[in-house]
Amino acid sequence: MNDDRAVVVGADGGERSTQAVRWAAAEAVRRDAPLRVVVAYYWRTPLAAVAPAGELAEAARRSADRLVADIAREVFAVRPEADVRTEAVQGHPAEVLLTAGEDAALLVLGTRGRHATVGAVLGSVSQQVAVHARCPVVVVRGRTDPTGDVLVGVDGSEPSDRALALAFDEARQRGCGLVAVRAVETPLVPVPVGAPPLVYDTAEVQRALTEQAVEQVARASERCPDVRWECHGVAGDAADVLVERSQRAQLTVVGSRGHGGFAGLLLGSVGLRLLHRAHCPVMIAHLPGGVQEPDEPM
To answer: Are residues 64 and 153 in the same domain?
Structure first.
């Protein structure tokens, strides 16, 4: 058992949370890693900035402890071979999960859910955690059966290089192939009012960008020579193309800029739209340690 890097999953007892826990348990078994289930609990109070105390605090703790025990039993029922560690932590869910994921191999979240007694709304925090985490993050959504290839968007940037490296590692672990997509939007640049129209060969632009993408993927494939791969240049909006193709994938991988600032700038509009629309789990490939990345990722 690899005890150094756990798979961490945030849970709140809701249906989507349960789906995420089951996915994370299967992933932990695949990685031969411990599964760490984290329940964040807190109580809203009209007294701002005052922590729960007395009977309210004790009731919150007991409720969270019961939920943790229920989740542990659920995991054991579906994955008895998993090494499960559970904990209930008082605090805001996003802050608790970001702290728990600092040394994790992977941080897993559901898309939406609510457990009234612990007050954790994973739907409202999943985007915060996906954007600001310091380890790879998976938002579990859509179908979760392990069929299909790993899908990854590429655009020639360093973040997509990072996404490619992670995608190849995932494909190797899962024993499946990798499908890389280079979406080509036209027109490529806006035309100012009054300026003469741009004249270019759309097919030639798509061909050139696709060739660049194939070279990028070929370089990345050297780390996993046993993984079969293919690369496609597709005309259209990048998010729309990846969402459509995610219907046939078991995992979609995108890159991230780094940490700090606005979510849309960190993850990119394509990544954010995938979190809301993809038909399979979405993995965000983060830089370790909060390194800033200037390029716009897929």
So the answer is: no
The answer as to whether 59 is a domain residue is yes
CA distance 67 to 71: 6
* Exposure b/e, 103-126, CB count within 10 A at least 16 = b: ebbbbbbbbbbbbebbbbebbebb
Q: Do the domain assignments include residue 1?
A: no
Quote the radius of gyration of the chain (alpha carbons, Å).
21
Nearest to 11 by CA among 108, 95, 80: 108
* Cβ(119)–Cβ(41) below 8 Å: yes
Q: Is residue 297 included in any domain, yes or no?
A: no
CATH of the domain at 283: 3.40.50.620
User: Which among 89, 92, 84 has a CA at the least distance from the CA of 24?
Assistant: 84
**Do 66 and 39 meet the contact criterion of CB atoms below 8 Å apart?**
no
User: How far is Cα of residue 148 from the mean position of the Cα atoms in its chain?
Assistant: 18
Q: Alpha-carbon distance 37 to 261, whole Å?
A: 28
pTM of the model: 0.82
Pairing of strands 114-115, 120-121: antiparallel
Give the domain range for residue 168. Answer: 149-290
Cα separation, 145 vs 32, whole angstroms: 19
The residue behind tokens 């979240």 is 109
pLDDT tens across 155-206, in order?
Answer: 988 888 999 999 999 999 999 999 999 998 765 555 566 666 555 567 787 8
